[in-house]
Amino acid sequence: MISEYHEGSSNNKYLELFNPTASNINLGGYQLVQYNNGSASPTYTLALSGTLAPYSTYVIENSSEALGVAANLSTTNQVMTFNGNDAIALQTSGGVNIDVIGTIGSSSNFAVVVDLRRNATVTLPVTTYNASQWTSTAADAVSNFGVHTSNCACSGPSTNASAVTPSGTIATSTTATLGWTNGNGTNRLVVVKSGSAVSGSPTYGTAYAGNAAFGSGQTIAGSEYAVYNGTGTSASITSLSPNTTYHVKVFEYNSSLSQYRDWETDRKSVV
Fold first, then answer.
1. Number of domains comprising the chain
2. Do 179 and 250 belong together in one domain?
3. Average pLDDT over residues 47-72
4. What is the pTM of this model?
5. Percentage of the residues of the chain whose pLDDT score is greater than 90
6. 41 lies in some domain
7. Which range marks the domain in which residue 35 is found?
8. Residue 50, domain CATH
9. Would you say 136 and 116 are in contact if contact means Cβ atoms under 8 Å apart?
10. 148 within domain boundaries
């Protein structure tokens, strides 16, 4: 998540990322984008790399900065030439927004010559900018870069869902009832794929809508469809093809405020 934003004088532009989870995050799967002057689509893209350790920060700066901030990445990339009306988003490398500061599609100023630091109470990223999540301080005051305080409660389930079974014959019927024994998470996401095993993983920050009609729910990867998302122990699936083998994976996870915590930390799965 984006934990600090600095739009200072001249080229004093900085961003800080924070890992609110108990696991390493491979930044190679993520990128920063700038929506310049109210653009509704990304204008500039900065691919990230490296590993962000649990509860740690990663600082990116404009390479022409003059305040001597110690950064993990000093770059000439145009993402780091933002002004106070350019929205910035943290995305997956596939272009899915995870966290956003500024209003995409608006050229109104939201942070001109100022430092914005994420409040400690904010433990999850958001894709719609909310000014109340940020504390504003004077520009060019950068002593806190590289340190972020968060109230994140990041514990995940320690026990998988288990004993996943169909109660009908999936290979010869158009419907099937799936059952499982819950682990100790708060919720389960059930994913079904035709012909081969489910190999994808849910994306950080994404709320998946399950649909009992196979092929109609959201996908986590390719043709891997969410058929159920909830707290129960069974799901009835429809729209299956006879004489076809289907593969099932149940992701056990913890949720908070109807949003997902980091799947890489919280989700456990069982085929």
1. 2
2. yes
3. 94
4. 0.60
5. 65
6. yes
7. 2-138
8. 2.60.40.1260
9. yes
10. no
pLDDT band of 194, cuts 50, 70, 90:
very high
From residue 133, give the alpha-carbon distance in Å to each of 108, 155, 172, 258: 18, 22, 52, 18
Whether residues 133 and 6 share a domain: the answer is yes
Residue 182, CA distances (Å) to 93, 189, 227, 233 in order: 32, 11, 16, 6
- Rg over CA atoms, the chain: 21
Provide the token pair at 59: 């600082």
212 and 266 assigned to the same domain: yes
Confidence of residue 24 (pLDDT cuts 50, 70, 90): confident
Whole-angstrom distance, CA of residue 102 vs CA of residue 128: 8
Strands 259-260 and 255-256: antiparallel
Q: Which pair of tokens denotes residue 64?
A: 């022409």
Least Cα distance to 69 among 61, 77, 57 occurs for: 61
Model pLDDT for residues 72-109, shown as the tens digit of each residue: 999 999 999 999 999 999 999 999 999 999 999 999 99
- Claim to verify: residue 178 and residue 79 sit in the same structural domain: no
Tell me what percent of the residues of the chain surpass a pLDDT of 70.
Answer: 88
Query: CB–CB of 222/197 below 8 Å?
Result: no
Amino acid present at 266? D
Q: What is the DSSP string of 125-172?
A: --SS--GGGEEEEETT--TTTT-----------SS--EEEEESS-TTT
* 80 and 208 belong to one structural domain: no
Instruction: Specify the pLDDT at position 262.
Output: 46
